[in-house]
Inverse folding.
């Protein structure tokens, strides 16, 4: 599969999005449907971004700017955009994971949690500390475990795109030519500079692959953002 994707990346991603169906549960009743709609700030394929997720994301970005960038007067519009863009991107990766049939086994999930240093004491997983820490953050174990499963799936999807996205011979020649132009006359091209330029080209190509994937979702109407609820 990886080899096939390499030959056509990033545009293969577009063709893998077809067939996504959004199931509406008729038994919810009209009131339940309205309540659900009011709590949904965005949909990405079959996945929803809830108001709670959105508010938590805004708070994380606020703390990031306040604590790391030492900015207190962050515009709310900036936080809104950062939060919704980040959540939509994550849900898009989740759709891609589904399209590729990626899964996280119970053992993978277990290992990810017990090896997480946040839940360890003296280097060993502490189940009671794990539950107390989740409770302090108003989360139940099954909610956190579902979140971790999604994180692991997203990580697998990112890795898949990363491994599948490579530079073509023509792009490698561009890297070589650029390295030569940056080399002083009479000197040998620096292999380290070549690798730096190559990584920049590759990073840009990976970013374009994800942008193409998200653009194809939007073109199909599979991403909807309810601006009035932000």
């Amino acid at each position: 599969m990886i080899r096939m994707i390499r030959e056509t990346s990033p545009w293969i991603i577009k063709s893998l999005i077809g067939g996504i169906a959004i199931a509406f549960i008729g038994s919810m009743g009209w009131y339940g449907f309205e309540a659900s709609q009011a709590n949904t700030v965005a949909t990405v394929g079959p996945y929803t971004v809830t108001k709670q997720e959105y508010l938590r994301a805004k708070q994380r970005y606020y703390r990031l700017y306040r604590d790391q960038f030492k900015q207190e007067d962050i515009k709310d519009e900036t936080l809104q955009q950062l939060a919704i863009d980040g959540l939509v991107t994550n849900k898009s990766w989740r759709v891609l994971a589904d399209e590729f049939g990626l899964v996280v086994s119970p053992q993978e999930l277990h290992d990810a949690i017990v090896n997480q240093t946040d839940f360890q004491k003296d280097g060993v997983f502490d189940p009671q500390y794990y539950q107390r820490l989740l409770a302090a953050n108003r989360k139940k174990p099954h909610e956190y475990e579902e979140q971790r499963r999604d994180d692991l799936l997203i990580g697998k999807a990112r890795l898949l795109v990363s491994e599948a996205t490579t530079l073509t011979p023509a792009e490698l020649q561009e890297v070589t030519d650029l390295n030569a132009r940056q080399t002083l006359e009479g000197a040998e091209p620096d292999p380290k500079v070549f690798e730096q330029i190559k990584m920049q080209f590759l990073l840009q190509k990976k970013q374009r692959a994800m942008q193409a994937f998200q653009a194809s979702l939007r073109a199909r109407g599979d991403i909807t953002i309810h601006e009035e609820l932000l």
